[in-house]
Amino acid sequence: MKALIIRACDVMHMREDGKLEFTKQGDAFLYSSESVLKQKK
Fold it and tell me: How many structural domains are present in the chain?
């Protein structure tokens, strides 16, 4: 399986646009594996 190579600022924009599902625990963002795998396509 290839890794998703992406910059932190792109992840932030994807999160704000609703393209990534996430939960926040303290200062950390935890992303759902399904939403990350959708971005690989």
Answer: 1
| Domain carrying residue 24 | 8-39
Taking alpha carbons only, the member of 20, 24, 23 closest to residue 38 is 20
Look at residues 24, 17, 19 and name the one whose alpha carbon lies nearest to residue 34: 19
Contact (Cβ atoms closer than 8 angstroms) between residue 4 and residue 33: no
What pTM, to 2 d.p., does this model score? 0.71
pLDDT tens digits along 3-24: 778 899 999 999 999 999 999 9
**What is the CB-side half-sphere exposure of residue 20 using CA atoms within 13 A?**
21
CA atoms within 13 A on the CB side of 4: 16
